[in-house]
Every structure is written in structure tokens, then in C-alpha cells.
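Subject: design request, 418 residues
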């Protein structure tokens, strides 16, 4: 407290205030020019990612530079005690500059800001030399659970250590998963399975490592694990069921990314397999997140399970005046003209019955791209049938009904009124 009343303390505060104002004025002048130069950089995203965080801290960079120069001049002209406050502020400012730039590697800005503040607070306590006092204060805030002492210091250490280890585990898991996804020796289902298992294993190992590093006896979580078991039994059974179903799906390879499937009223192709659900994209661009359990308990049509060939049926009818032999030949010829119909497997047409007002037929043909739609190819084949029948005089009938009146009906004509 005596140091705060010394003249050199007031001089240092005045010097820092002048340097801060000067840094602010200079930054407002040169920052727009630097931004203009940076925007002109193209084709080098790595350099832009490096420059952008520094550019946002232009004022702080200039202020730290000025403080460094002022500290060097004062130490060369006066006693070190006369520049102690400037050296402390310089250390704090430089630490914040470095930490805030490095925290930009975290994609979430909110999480990055929280991490930066926590790390800087720890560095500030270390720079000010009050680590023991702060540690004792935080240790005094807490409570005991059996033999385990839970204090604010322990929670803070746990938060920092868990954040670092989990971030490293997730980053390493994503990196290894991307490498696995590029492996051509594994099937798509095995790539997803190995990637998910690897990420989950790394996260569990990171959590165990963090708790062990804090000196926490893992047997203390016996009650907690029992509570989790009860929760699984009563409230989380669906979550666990979907997770286990996802593993079963990946292991038996019944579906895989890229497959075309039908589940109830949903028809589309699988975009991604997740731990809890399967992402299915339909022809209209909608993305359905279907629980994994539905693929185990419900009937699923996988249009591309063993191969891409799919046979489609198109029923139709013609009038009784038509020659059925000619109709079948025209139908096969019309189907063969549609571009998506597979030419290596000839279409076939069969007469299926004598209807109330028409001769009934079914036209069968094959396609090898069900992911491009089923309704549209049926529509094209029907249009081809229409054009062929119209060109060859084949009529498509409409229903006729004969009404027999058991009681005679008298019809009389009445002259219109004038």
C-alpha cells in the first residue's frame, strides 16, 4: 500500500494512460489500411487465418509494443522498482494478447472467449504472485461427500483439465475418423463403426485421465454410476436402445451411407449414420432423422442392399377392341425407349386378366439408379405408353355402367314457357 502513494506509481500510471491513448489513435489510422491490404490476399487461406486474429488486436499489439519500449527506456535510466507497475501491466497485456489469439482455434467464439478468460486469469494470478492466497481462498469454498472434498479449486481444476483433455480427444478422434473414412479397404459401414467407437473410446479415456490427474478416486463414483444405471432403466432406455441399435446396424451392414431405402412413407437415400439416428434425405430435399431402433424393429426396404438393379411394375388396361399381342409388343417397345430403363434386361409385358371394362396388363422393367426416384420413371414409362398407343390406335377405356330400371319410367316433353 505504501508503494501506491509513491510519486513513481503515479508517473507510471500516467505514462501507461498516454501510451494507451496513443495506441488507440494510431490503431484507428492504420487498421483500415492494413485491412485493405489483407483483403487483397487471395489463394492463401492459411496466411489469412494467421493474420486475421492479429489484425483484430491491432490496438493491443501497438500498446504492448509501446509498453515494451517504455520499460526498456525506464530500466536504462532509473531503478527497476520505478518501472514495476509497467512491467506487470506489460506481462498481463502480452499474456492476454497471446491467449486471445490462440483461443481463435476454437470454432465456437463463446467457448473460446470463456477459455481465454480462464487461462488469462490463471496466468494473471501467477504473474501477480498471489497463487497461494487465491488457492487457499478457493480451497476454503466447498463441501465434503464422504472422504471426497469438493472445493471451488477442485472444480476449477476439473473444468480446465476436462476441457483440455476432451478437446484433445475430440480433435484426435475427428482426425482419425477422417483418415478412416478415406480408407478404401473398409466398407462404408465399417468406416462409420470404427470411427464412432474410436471417438467414444478417446473421450472415455480422456475423462478417466482427467479425473485421475485430479487425484479423484474413481470408486467414489459408485453411487453416481448406480444412479445412472437406474436412469438408464427408467428414462434413458430409448437412448441406449438407439445407440445399441446403431452399433448392430453398423456391424451387420444392413444399411450404409448412400443406400436407397423405404421406411414407411419415407423414401430416400442415407446420408449419414449417427450414434442415435440415421439421416435420410428424400427427393424433395427434406432430411429425416430416423431413430436407429426403427431400422431394427420395422420393415425396411433397401433398394440397393446387394445390387442397384430394381424391377418396377406398371399396370395398365386397354379396350376389348385391341389386339393383346400387339399391345404387349408396343408396351415393350415403348418402355425400351425410356433412358433410365436398363437395356441389358429386356422389359416384359403380361396380360393379367379380363377386367370390367378393359384388358388388364402389367409392364415390368429394370432400373439401376433408384436413388434418382421411382415415381418419375414410372411417369415417363406411362407417357411413352400413351404416345405409342395413340400413334397405333390403341384405346384406353373408361368404366361403363349399365343401369336397368325394373319399373317403367315415363318421359314427357313439356313445352317451354313463353
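Subject: RE: design request

Done. Sequence follows.
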Amino acid at each position: 500500500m505504501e508503494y501506491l502513494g509513491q510519486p513513481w506509481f503515479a508517473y507510471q500510471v500516467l505514462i501507461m494512460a498516454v501510451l494507451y491513448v496513443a495506441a488507440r489513435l494510431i490503431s484507428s489510422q492504420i487498421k483500415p489500411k492494413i485491412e485493405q491490404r489483407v483483403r487483397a490476399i487471395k489463394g492463401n487461406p492459411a496466411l489469412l487465418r494467421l493474420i486475421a486474429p492479429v489484425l483484430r488486436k491491432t490496438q493491443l499489439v501497438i500498446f504492448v509494443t509501446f509498453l515494451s519500449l517504455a520499460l526498456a527506456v525506464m530500466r536504462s535510466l532509473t531503478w527497476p522498482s520505478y518501472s514495476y507497475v509497467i512491467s506487470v501491466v506489460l506481462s498481463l497485456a502480452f499474456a492476454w494478447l497471446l491467449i486471445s489469439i490462440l483461443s481463435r482455434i476454437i470454432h465456437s467464439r463463446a467457448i473460446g472467449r470463456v477459455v481465454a478468460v480462464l487461462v488469462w486469469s490463471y496466468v494473471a494470478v501467477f504473474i501477480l504472485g498471489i497463487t497461494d492466497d487465491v488457492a487457499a481462498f478457493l480451497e476454503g469454498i466447498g463441501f465434503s461427500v464422504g472422504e471426497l472434498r469438493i472445493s471451488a479449486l477442485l472444480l476449477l481444476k476439473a473444468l480446465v483439465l476436462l476441457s483440455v483433455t476432451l478437446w484433445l480427444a475430440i480433435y484426435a478422434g475427428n482426425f482419425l475418423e477422417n483418415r478412416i473414412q478415406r480408407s478404401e479397404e473398409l466398407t462404408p459401414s465399417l468406416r462409420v463403426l470404427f470411427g464412432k467407437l474410436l471417438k467414444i473410446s478417446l473421450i472415455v479415456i480422456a475423462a478417466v485421465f482427467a479425473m485421475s490427474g485430479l487425484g479423484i478416486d474413481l470408486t467414489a463414483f459408485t453411487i453416481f454410476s448406480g444412479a445412472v444405471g437406474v436412469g438408464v432403466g427408467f428414462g434413458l432406455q430409448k437412448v441406449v436402445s438407439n445407440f445399441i441399435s446403431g452399433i448392430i446396424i453398423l456391424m451387420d451392414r444392413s444399411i450404409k451411407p448412400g443406400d436407397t431405402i423405404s421406411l414407411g412413407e419415407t423414401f430416400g437415400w442415407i446420408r449419414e449414420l449417427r450414434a442415435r439416428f440415421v439421416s435420410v434425405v428424400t427427393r424433395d430435399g427434406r432430411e429425416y432423422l430416423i431413430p436407429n431402433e426403427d431400422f431394427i424393429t420395422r420393415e425396411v426396404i433397401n433398394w440397393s442392399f446387394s445390387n442397384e438393379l430394381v424391377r418396377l411394375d406398371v399396370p395398365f388396361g386397354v379396350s376389348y377392341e385391341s389386339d393383346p399381342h400387339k399391345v404387349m409388343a408396343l408396351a415393350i417397345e415403348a418402355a425400351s425407349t425410356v433412358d433410365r430403363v436398363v437395356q441389358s434386361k429386356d422389359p416384359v409385358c403380361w396380360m393379367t386378366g379380363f377386367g370390367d371394362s378393359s384388358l388388364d396388363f402389367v409392364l415390368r422393367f429394370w432400373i439401376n439408379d433408384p436413388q434418382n426416384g421411382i415415381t418419375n420413371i414410372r411417369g415417363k414409362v406411362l407417357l411413352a405408353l400413351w404416345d405409342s398407343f395413340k400413334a397405333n390406335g390403341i384405346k384406353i377405356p373408361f368404366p361403363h355402367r349399365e343401369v336397368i330400371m325394373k319399373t317403367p319410367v315415363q318421359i314427357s316433353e313439356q313445352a317451354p314457357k313463353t
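Residues 7-39 form the longest helix (33 residues).
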